[in-house]
Structures are given as structure tokens and as C-alpha cells.
């Protein structure tokens, strides 16, 4: 056999092996998806991670054995009892991660999967839905201006891009409140044989929101309730599941801290980074700010988010000037950002650079913040992005001030109080059986393993 023929046969064998491997992998992936009773794909511009967590909470509390996966500020796998584990990546995130998630976490006992869409480019969004998730229910939280370079410059184009994740012959749920955009989503859904359900936030009362210990939006809760109605889960059960769910790492929790003798209300608003969401959040939060306390906004700009830095630089003088008394810049683009802010009319003496051009220590950052608060109290709001050296210094400082009260979201997820009701009942039953067995043995009566099954099965 000549060397050339041998090489050809070797290449053919490798190609055949790859084809067999690919077909086996695809078949296994589809089988795992097909065994699920519920598949939910969560897309949209704002609130995807939050809605993924809320919907998973609804399903767990409603009796479905559920796993969920978020991308968000920190990628997390949420197991069937609500316990979370970080997703570690060797390199950059890719949408192929969704296949790995299904392979590792969807076993024959799992009944429902809730997964946040990772894709941004339209082609990848369609591929993610049609081949990776194949959801029965897709959520499009809202349509906002973001990722225009990939998804289109207009809201209508962005809506069309998001609609590529609509299932075929399934359900689309959205809380988008603008009728013309909702109608556009409905048209795209009908083209795929699916129907649209509007999750109307007017159906969510103030009492429904009191179970959350962080800033939550009625639109997100309305989506969870819409899915509960669709699957026959009682409203109060759905609310309990949402209240128990762990918020995303970028969630807004208002806490007071002492900074060099000043009482500072810290508002981490990093996760809201489009104009509409930020302005709406400021409108909601303003009522919770102490009167006469100066409000300091931190523009935390990552070098790989230049367009977002430009957006917020324009927003400060045009949309936020009535809310922000002072502005501090962290991270990159400080000269460009400060120049834009001032050129559009915001006073130059109220803009303070503390990012890459200064490379400040934590002490310098704290001294600047305290110096901008003339009275005893002030409000400090972090915006734009979560990860820069300066922001991480400040966040770690505030976590240190919490001391023993600080718990990571991973620790919170393991709190038995947050487990689904069914899980807690089974655990209690197991404890009762173990106790009874020990007492029986102490009395000279051997334990009986089937008795444990009886009690557990009746839980």
C-alpha cells in the first residue's frame, strides 16, 4: 500500500469517526431535551437572568424537577433544589456551553429546563433555539436599545432579531409594553405557528412585590405568573417560588454603610445598562432616597464596552442631571466621557475622575466619596458595568463592612428555607425516619428500611 493511499484511507476513517461521533452527540442531545416536560428559553434585552431565576423558582415550587442556567453578571447553574454552582470557563464564553449544560445536568429525573439565551447575533440566536434548546416556551422579556451593532439599529430590527428564538408551534411570552413592538413580536410568532401571551404587569399587586428583599420589577414577576397559569401552578405557589429564588449577583439591594463618618446608601445599579431601564429605575428609586442627601453616580466603564460608555456620558446631562448631584468616573474612557458630559451642559466641577487615568487607592476613592457628601448622609449609585479595578475595590470594601451578615448568593442558595416545599418535606420525612429507627434500635427493635420508603413516599 502506497503512502498516499494510506493517508487517504486514514483521512476517510477519521471523517467517518467524526460523523458517527457528531450523529451520536446530536441524537443524545435531542433525546435529553425530548424527555423534558417543559423547556423555557429566556431572551430579551434586560432582565434575562432575573427572569430565568424567577421562572425556575416557579417551576420548582410548582412540583417540577427543574434545572436552570443563567449567563448574567456571573454564569450559574441552578440545580433542582435551587442550589447554585458557578460555571467555570477555560476561555471565552460560547453558545456551545448550552449543549454541555444539557449533557451534564439533564438526567432522566429532570422534568424542566430553564435556560438563558447566550446568543446575540441573529444567526446564533436562531441556531441556539432550533438546535440547542428547542424550547416549548420562549420568553422575550422586552425590546430595548442595546447590541445594535449585531441586532440592528432600530427597535423593530432588534425585535425581529430576538424573535428568532421563538419556538415553532409553541408559546411566546413577553412583558414588552409598547403595543407596536408587541404586535411585531406577535407577527413573528404567528409565522412560526406560535401564539403570544402578554405578561401584563398591571396584574401584579404591591402585595406580590413585598416578598422580595431587593429591587424587583412587576414585569418580571408578571412573566413568572404567566408561565404558572400556563402550567396550572397556583398563583400563591408561584409567588412563593419567586420569593425564594436567589437574585442575580448584579441585583439592586439598597444598604447603608459608614464611609469615613458619612452614612452612605449604596445602590449597585450595574446590571441596568440601557437608557430606558436606567431612567425607569431612577424614577422608582428616587422615592427611597433620603431628602436633601446628595446623589453621586459612578460611571464604571469597561474598555470593551466603548459604546455603552458613550451612551451613559450622553445620559448624564440629558436624562439624569435632575437625579445626580455629582459624577465619578471609574475604569476606561475617562477623558472622552468627561468631555462629552461637560460639552452637553453638565457642570465640570461636578465630574471627578477616579479611574485608569488616576489609578486611585481604596483610601483615595473613599475620601473622594466622603468629601462630596456635605451633610451626614449621601447616596452612591454604581452604573454602566460591574467589573473594573476601582469598582471591585469598592464592592469588596462594602462586603467587608457587612461582616458576618454578608453571604454570597451561593451561600444563600443552600439555605434550607429557600428550598422547594416538596424537597423540604422529603428531608423532614427522612429525618423523622432516621430518628424513629434510632429510637427503635435503642428499644431493641431492628429498623425496617421499607418503613423509610413509606414515610418518604407519603411526603
Automatic annotation (TrEMBL):
Pfam families, per this entry?
Mur_ligase_M
Where is region (Disordered) located? 405-459
Q: Which InterPro entries match?
A: Capsule_biosynth_CapB (IPR008337), Mur-like_cat_sf (IPR036565), Mur_ligase_cen (IPR013221), MurCDEF_pg_biosynth (IPR050061)
Basic and acidic residues compositional bias, start-end: 405-417, 449-459
Provide the GO biological process annotations: capsule polysaccharide biosynthetic process
Q: Which residues form the Mur ligase central domain?
A: 44-197
A molecular function (GO) term: acid-amino acid ligase activity
What cellular component GO annotations does this protein have? membrane
Its name, as the record gives it, is Poly-gamma-glutamate synthase PgsB/CapB
Q: Which organism is it from?
A: Blastococcus mobilis
Amino acid at each position: 500500500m502506497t503512502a498516499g493511499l494510506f493517508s487517504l484511507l486514514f483521512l476517510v476513517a477519521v471523517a467517518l469517526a467524526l460523523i458517527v461521533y457528531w450523529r451520536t452527540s446530536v441524537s443524545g442531545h435531542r433525546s435529553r431535551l425530548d424527555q423534558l416536560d417543559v423547556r423555557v428559553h429566556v431572551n430579551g434585552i434586560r432582565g434575562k437572568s432575573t427572569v430565568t431565576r424567577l421562572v425556575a423558582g416557579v417551576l420548582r415550587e410548582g412540583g417540577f424537577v427543574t434545572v436552570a442556567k443563567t449567563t448574567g453578571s456571573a454564569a450559574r447553574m441552578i440545580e433542582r433544589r435551587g442550589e447554585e454552582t458557578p460555571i467555570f470557563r477555560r476561555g471565552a464564553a460560547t453558545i456551545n456551553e448550552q449543549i454541555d449544560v444539557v449533557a451534564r445536568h439533564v438526567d432522566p429525573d429532570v422534568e424542566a429546563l430553564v435556560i438563558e439565551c447566550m446568543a446575540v447575533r441573529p444567526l446564533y440566536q436562531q441556531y441556539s433555539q432550533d438546535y440547542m434548546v428547542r424550547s416549548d416556551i420562549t420568553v422575550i422579556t422586552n425590546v430595548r436599545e442595546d447590541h445594535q451593532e449585531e441586532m440592528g439599529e432600530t427597535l423593530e430590527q432588534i425585535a425581529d432579531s430576538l424573535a428568532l428564538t421563538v419556538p415553532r408551534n409553541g408559546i411566546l411570552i413577553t412583558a414588552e409594553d409598547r403595543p407596536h413592538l408587541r404586535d411585531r413580536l406577535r407577527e413573528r410568532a404567528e409565522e412560526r405557528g406560535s401564539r403570544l401571551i402578554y405578561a401584563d404587569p398591571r396584574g401584579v399587586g404591591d402585595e406580590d412585590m413585598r416578598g422580595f428583599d431587593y429591587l424587583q420589577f412587576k414585569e418580571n414577576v408578571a412573566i413568572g405568573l404567566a408561565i404558572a397559569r400556563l402550567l396550572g401552578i397556583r398563583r400563591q405557589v408561584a409567588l412563593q417560588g419567586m420569593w425564594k429564588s436567589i437574585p442575580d449577583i448584579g441585583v439592586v439591594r439598597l444598604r447603608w454603610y459608614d464611609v469615613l463618618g458619612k452614612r452612605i446608601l449604596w445602590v449597585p445599579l450595574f446590571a441596568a445598562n440601557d437608557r430606558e431601564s436606567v431612567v425607569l429605575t431612577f424614577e422608582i428609586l428616587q422615592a427611597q432616597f433620603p431628602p436633601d442627601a446628595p446623589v453621586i453616580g459612578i460611571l464604571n466603564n469597561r474598555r470593551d464596552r466603548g459604546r455603552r460608555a458613550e451612551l451613559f456620558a450622553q445620559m448624564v446631562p440629558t436624562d439624569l442631571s435632575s437625579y445626580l448631584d455629582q459624577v465619578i468616573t471609574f475604569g476606561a474612557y475617562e477623558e472622552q466621557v468627561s468631555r462629552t458630559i461637560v460639552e452637553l451642559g453638565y457642570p465640570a466641577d461636578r465630574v471627578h475622575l477616579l479611574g485608569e487615568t488616576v489609578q486611585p487607592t481604596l483610601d483615595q476613592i473613599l475620601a473622594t466619596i466622603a468629601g462630596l457628601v456635605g451633610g451626614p448622609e449621601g447616596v452612591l449609585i454604581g452604573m454602566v458595568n460591574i467589573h473594573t479595578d476601582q469598582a471591585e475595590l469598592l464592592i469588596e470594601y462594602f462586603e467587608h463592612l457587612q461582616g458576618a451578615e454578608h453571604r454570597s448568593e451561593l451561600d444563600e442558595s443552600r439555605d434550607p428555607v429557600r428550598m422547594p416545599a416538596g424537597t423540604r418535606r422529603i428531608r423532614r420525612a427522612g429525618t423523622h425516619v432516621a430518628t424513629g429507627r434510632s429510637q427503635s434500635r435503642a428499644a431493641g427493635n431492628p429498623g425496617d428500611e421499607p418503613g423509610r420508603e413509606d414515610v418518604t413516599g407519603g411526603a
